[in-house]
Amino acid sequence: MKFPLSTFWVAAVATALFLSGCDTSKDEDAQPTVGTLDIEMEHVVGSKMLTLNATTYTNPASNEQFTISKFNYYVSNVKLQKADGTEYVQPESYYLVQASDAESQHLHLKDIAVGDYTGISFVVGVDSTRNVSGAQTGALDANNNMFWTWNTGYIFFKMEGNLLASSDYPAKPFLMHVGGFAKPYNAIRTVKLTFPSSNLLVRDDHAPELHLKVDALQVLNGPQPIQLNTFMGVHGPSANAIQVAGNYAVGMFSVEHIHAN
Amino acid sequence: MLLPRTLSKATLAQLLGLAGLLVAGCQPDADVLKQQAVPGDALPGNFPAPAYTLETNPPDRATFELGRTLFYDPRLSRTGEVSCGSCHQQFVAFAHADHRVSHGVDGLLGTRNAPALQNLRWRRELLWDGGAKNLETMPLAPLTNPVEMDETLDNVLQKLNADPDYQRRFAKIYGKSPVDSYQFLRALAQFTAALTSANSRYDHYVRGEAGGQLSEPELRGRALLTQKCTPCHSTDLFTDETYRNNGLDREFSADSGRAHITSVAQDQGLFKVPSLRNVAKTPPYMHDGRFATLSQVLDHYDHGVQASPTLDPLLRQVGIPLTTQERAALLAFLETLTDTEFLQDRRLAERP
After folding, report:
1. Distance CA B331, CA B221 (A)
2. Residue A132 to residue B133, Cβ atoms within 8 A
3. What pLDDT is stored for residue A147 in this prediction?
């Protein structure tokens, strides 16, 4: 009874060997067509470096003083644009960046089609499909403390900290957990940045580095400014989540510089 | 190492299944084949297409049994006292017999009735408010709820990884260690997806199978249900999976229902329309378990519907008026939706 099955395996092995043989010969003939790109996230608060808990920051717009204890966000669906309008779309493109984890601030992109890229775009958060796709691994593991259990979906962005007391108000903690992928509170935002001075050259013999500045102050000073003293925080898909997402999508990310290497 | 990369997991599972069938075919005893089967691994002919397809997580006996062990394991809770099965008992279609609301760790009470777990494979969204949108991640809600199992996913994984039996069983199935959240949730989903109830007397009737006779009052009840209780309780799943305010209350400060998930005012007081399958076995009724009998439920629709801005338009005029004869016929039909085979399937029991 096992004979037909063994026959299948033999056939499958033969087919696989045959196919992989074809791939190898093709690789030898063609020029290598892929390269790498490292993206480095540089977390700042205005003119200061972001250091968790240790530094007191002042928001010049509101004069509020605060500290930050947690700063996490998802970067997903990374794309690189060319001058001719075409783009490279990274498959399985999910990264969880955490201020508490230096290694997570380096995004290593492999197997990128070589070319001269003029800009980059990415989703801050996770696309709606993956929000409802069940158990996941890697950056999307439900055990990364970035997943709501009572209302299925990823927390796209987390900023927590403490507002310091002033003569007008007492000290209080603040918490922003932004997520939500359904109307009317869809907080998925795409950031698109163009490379200001020179193109990003992806080559098989270069290892370019793209440095992005990530300014947490812009979460408060975006199109809809936030005063921590009166802000009720964000705990789920809501109007407040949309407000925070709208702020970070506009001004939080900018291109610092590119190392061609 | 070439083969596993060339063949998809699904193809492998099919091959293994084929191998199982071929081996079983050699045996003269047909019971061997039956033992290999996993509950719910065939889709009933009278059901619509499932949301959680067989291909998503192909039913496999060892994984199903691992999921069953997890379902009945109280160590998944913070105190080691509450398992999924504590509030979801097989003899009442995996609802919680005689409990209005869920009972969690340290005797804490929840705010909602533990619903029957059946035909979850067909649910696009789960929980009374639809907060869970995938069968695999749904258990994280009761697991982490402070008044239910009150445990963290991280702690659950630590407990599983400290247990040699779990280590061995997970490694055998998934081929790598330690046990991670993906393996844990996928294995548990093999059990919850297997809870298919499709062998009631009604099912045998609609599929034209042996034992499928319905009496005259039962048939009248079926016609009345179609006339008065649809579209809410439609299809052979007996729910249209919408969220509706069925007029239980005038205001919703106790539980905003669907609005808790959507933050939309028009969703205040809306809850998922529950299936009517095994309904005679699953009192108490409604999201908060306020009605102890089906008769009380019919009373509500007959003369108890409360007006509010979000009351379902279908109940706006006068509720659902029912004569004594109509009530009797409806109750008779609802009894035909009891699936004894499901309620007594040893393979789904804590001690098979």
Report:
1. 7
2. yes
3. 98
Q: Which residues of B touch A143 (CB under 8 A)?
A: 153-154, 157, 180-181
Tokens of A144: 């990364």
* pLDDT tens, residue by residue, B297-338: 999 999 999 999 999 999 998 899 999 999 999 999 999 999
Interface subset of B 12-51, CB within 8 angstroms of A: 15, 18-19, 22-23, 25-26
CA-to-CA dists, residue B336 to B120, B167, B209, B219, B333, angstroms = 20, 43, 14, 10, 5
Give whole-number Cα distances, B58 to A162, B13, B134, B273, B300, in Å: 48, 7, 16, 28, 42
B6·A16 Cβ contact <8 A: yes
Q: Residues A84-110: what's their mean pLDDT?
A: 97
Give kind and range of the element (H or E) at residue B71: helix B61-71
Count other C-beta atoms under 10 Å from residue B332's C-beta: 18
| Matching residue, tokens 């190392």 | A259
Looking at chain B, the whole-number percentage of residues with pLDDT higher than 70 is 90
Residue in A closest to B129 by C-alpha: A151
Can you give the pLDDT at residue B318?
82
Nearest by CB to B180, which of A137, A185, A236?
A137
Among candidates A12, A152, A185 on the partner chain, residue whose Cβ is nearest the Cβ of B133: A152
Tell me what pLDDT residue B160 has.
98
ipTM of the complex: 0.85
